[in-house]
Design a protein that fits this description.
278 residues, alpha/beta, 2 domains, 14 helices, 5 strands
């Protein structure tokens, strides 16, 4: 439960009451206050457990648009944002706001620090781009995002890489340098942000079925679609992903027209899965 969240504000008076009751129970030997203490503790616990849902309900009901500085930042770094019309931009911005307020972001240095707001936007842009066609767009359970300023090793992948989705702990880790570059299609770099959220989406929606991918010419077709070869893509990620669907769907987002030509039937599966209209 974050200090600036609505759930925390709701919990504050009960925290004060719990402290008051606890003082009387433990320091004033007033056993009559013990039932009240337990009630306040239970209420605080319930608020804590359901804090993501409480925050989501509030921010969804009362979202705000981004300020001019944030909009300018998006205009400068996000090719996708610039393709949206005014109505779509309002929806997109409101969802960005809800996503950012519903998640935890940390900048990993010698110690974990709160991630700057513009860097949170970079992560959120990729998240909402992938889930824009969904009613439930917050990637249930995946609430913690960690960012390095460079490639990093982890206990699960003990070598330098730039993106990792940990399904067990529901943590996502990024190399911010590659993440920012991927936002602008002109940089011609594999978008690790879209890749991560596509991977999460597929993990959360295992009920979806897709046409088989012919792996014999997969990387050749990818290069035809994007101009990026296998070596370049793997170098950007830091390893070769197990799921070919996470890779191909990332490119479907990045290069929809070119992708449809190479994979017309799978592209239709993609549009249906993500509820998109290109």
């Amino acid at each position: 439960m974050k200090i600036h969240s609505i759930a925390f504000l709701i919990a504050v008076p009960f925290i004060v009451l719990a402290i008051y009751a606890g003082y009387h129970v433990f320091f004033m030997d007033n056993a009559g206050m013990f039932p009240y203490l337990m009630i306040f503790v239970i209420i605080i616990t319930v608020i804590y457990v359901f804090s993501p849902q409480i925050d989501f309900a509030w921010y969804s009901q009362y979202p705000r648009e981004l300020n001019e500085k944030e909009k300018l930042f998006l205009t400068e770094v996000s090719s996708f944002y610039n393709t949206l019309d005014d109505e779509q931009k309002v929806i997109f911005e409101q969802r960005l706001y809800v996503f950012i307020r519903s998640k935890e972001f940390k900048f990993v240095r010698k110690e974990h620090k709160e991630l700057p707001e513009d860097m949170k936007l970079v992560i959120a842009v990729n998240a909402i781009r992938v889930s824009l066609g969904q009613q439930k767009y917050l990637y249930n359970g995946f609430d913690r995002y960690y960012v390095y300023g460079h490639a990093f090793p982890t206990p699960d992948k003990q070598f330098l890489h730039s993106v990792e989705v940990n399904y067990e702990d529901k943590i996502v880790i990024f190399n911010m340098e590659n993440l920012i570059k991927g936002l602008n299609i002109k940089n011609r770099i594999f978008n690790i942000g879209i890749f991560a959220f596509v991977d999460i989406f597929l993990h959360l929606h295992t009920e979806n079925k897709y046409r088989d991918i012919d792996k014999s010419d997969f990387w050749e077709k990818i290069e035809t679609i994007s101009g990026l070869n296998k070596e370049s893509i793997i170098n950007t990620i830091g390893y070769e992903p197990e799921s070919y669907y996470s890779i191909i769907f990332t490119f479907f987002f990045m290069f929809p027209g070119e992708s449809q030509k190479e994979y017309p039937e799978l592209y239709q599966d993609f549009l249906t899965t993500f509820n998109l209209k290109y």
